[in-house]
């Protein structure tokens, strides 16, 4: 019935994830099951659909081992609305006791954007046509009245040749507009503008939702003003395309579809959940612990399933997939309040990454860092090659710095690589010109980085 859930099998999902994430098989396997289970729910008998609850997941693993990356990729694969929040932000002053629902509103917002973009894509051709017509009308206004009736005063013999000439000129210009030949020519267009008053937060008495409603209401009351602007045809095309596409899209339909998509396919990633868990035993309580537990209590209804008001309508959170993540170095999952623990039945532990994992991460993923640098230099017509033993050396260095200084997981590869490449990135194209070849050897890596690695004080700051 619904098409908002893609039908990828668990193995297919893992295969997709494998293209971006090295290792972490247990985590991939479990998110794949969770994703497939949503499809299974949508395709089960109607009575059961309401009963089947999602397999919310708790990911446990040190920083930089791929927790966020897995969730983000999963959402991409599923074409699912996705947002990430840090649980700890709700303990900050000013957040306590409210606003936890904002994560659901953000999800809906995301969903609306996705649905709107898809619809825009679907009306693209028609909108482009309309834009072309509009630009043409500005350049060569039609003599033939639009409703097909002849002008008063102009009689048949006289108007016909004129109209014909006009029509022929228009067709000629239509070709020119289409080919982009006239892109630099300036024309006057009417631009719709809504005057938006800027309202500040009123003493914290208004929550997000009422705020949005006020903004919405006011923007509805404000006159939409057409403003004449002189722009090039190329610019006009972009501006008018937005307007024409908007005319062709039914916003009510978008809202409805977006709510449904968020309900059935949405994924909310709650990071740093361990920061709101407190080791309760032996702790006298009070202060920050109270607010942490408060955040957990606030999260509970959302994760358990409740109705949340958004400016696009009411959304039920029962079937949203929640993935919580944390390092859990100090607090343990069992330090979460029991009700919340129960709502994250699937625990997956992510492995610390080995030196060999680092090597793979540098080399294999579709978006591997080395590939990103290659692509950037390709844009300068410079070819970049990393020799295999250079990658091994980079992995070794990153691993070593992680052990000596601080373990930040695969993020270390970014600092190491950016330091290695820094001079090249500056010298290209001024000193190292187009058609050059840069080969990164093990020796080069050693030359650029070994001094730093040996000097702990330096590497603390630079790598
Ligand atoms: N297993 C992996 N395979 C490929 N890339 C990885 C892997 N782990 C981490 N990375 C890379 O390292 C970066 C950081 O990873 P990610 O954001 O997933 O960390 P995290 O586990 O969420 O850490 P934190 O607890 O700090 O949020 C990502 O941009 C990703 O490209
Ligand atoms: Mg993360």
Automatic annotation (TrEMBL):
<feature type="binding site">
    <location>
        <position position="411"/>
    </location>
    <ligand>
        <name>ATP</name>
    </ligand>
</feature>
<dbReference type="GO" id="GO:0005524">
    <property type="term" value="F:ATP binding"/>
</dbReference>
<feature type="binding site">
    <location>
        <position position="339"/>
    </location>
    <ligand>
        <name>ATP</name>
    </ligand>
</feature>
<protein>
    <recommendedName>
        <fullName>ATP-dependent protease ATPase subunit HslU</fullName>
    </recommendedName>
</protein>
<dbReference type="GO" id="GO:0008233">
    <property type="term" value="F:peptidase activity"/>
</dbReference>
<feature type="domain" description="Clp ATPase C-terminal">
    <location>
        <begin position="353"/>
        <end position="451"/>
    </location>
</feature>
<dbReference type="InterPro" id="IPR027417">
    <property type="entry name" value="P-loop_NTPase"/>
</dbReference>
<feature type="domain" description="AAA+ ATPase">
    <location>
        <begin position="53"/>
        <end position="350"/>
    </location>
</feature>
<dbReference type="GO" id="GO:0009376">
    <property type="term" value="C:HslUV protease complex"/>
</dbReference>
<keyword id="KW-0963">Cytoplasm</keyword>
<dbReference type="InterPro" id="IPR003959">
    <property type="entry name" value="ATPase_AAA_core"/>
</dbReference>
<dbReference type="InterPro" id="IPR050052">
    <property type="entry name" value="ATP-dep_Clp_protease_ClpX"/>
</dbReference>
<dbReference type="InterPro" id="IPR003593">
    <property type="entry name" value="AAA+_ATPase"/>
</dbReference>
<dbReference type="InterPro" id="IPR019489">
    <property type="entry name" value="Clp_ATPase_C"/>
</dbReference>
<comment type="function">
    <text>ATPase subunit of a proteasome-like degradation complex; this subunit has chaperone activity. The binding of ATP and its subsequent hydrolysis by HslU are essential for unfolding of protein substrates subsequently hydrolyzed by HslV. HslU recognizes the N-terminal part of its protein substrates and unfolds these before they are guided to HslV for hydrolysis.</text>
</comment>
<comment type="subunit">
    <text>A double ring-shaped homohexamer of HslV is capped on each side by a ring-shaped HslU homohexamer. The assembly of the HslU/HslV complex is dependent on binding of ATP.</text>
</comment>
<dbReference type="InterPro" id="IPR004491">
    <property type="entry name" value="HslU"/>
</dbReference>
<keyword id="KW-0645">Protease</keyword>
<keyword id="KW-0143">Chaperone</keyword>
<dbReference type="Pfam" id="PF00004">
    <property type="entry name" value="AAA"/>
</dbReference>
<feature type="binding site">
    <location>
        <position position="271"/>
    </location>
    <ligand>
        <name>ATP</name>
    </ligand>
</feature>
<keyword id="KW-0067">ATP-binding</keyword>
<dbReference type="GO" id="GO:0043335">
    <property type="term" value="P:protein unfolding"/>
</dbReference>
<keyword id="KW-0547">Nucleotide-binding</keyword>
<comment type="similarity">
    <text>Belongs to the ClpX chaperone family. HslU subfamily.</text>
</comment>
<feature type="binding site">
    <location>
        <begin position="64"/>
        <end position="69"/>
    </location>
    <ligand>
        <name>ATP</name>
    </ligand>
</feature>
<keyword id="KW-0378">Hydrolase</keyword>
<dbReference type="GO" id="GO:0016887">
    <property type="term" value="F:ATP hydrolysis activity"/>
</dbReference>
<dbReference type="GO" id="GO:0036402">
    <property type="term" value="F:proteasome-activating activity"/>
</dbReference>
<dbReference type="Pfam" id="PF07724">
    <property type="entry name" value="AAA_2"/>
</dbReference>
<feature type="binding site">
    <location>
        <position position="22"/>
    </location>
    <ligand>
        <name>ATP</name>
    </ligand>
</feature>
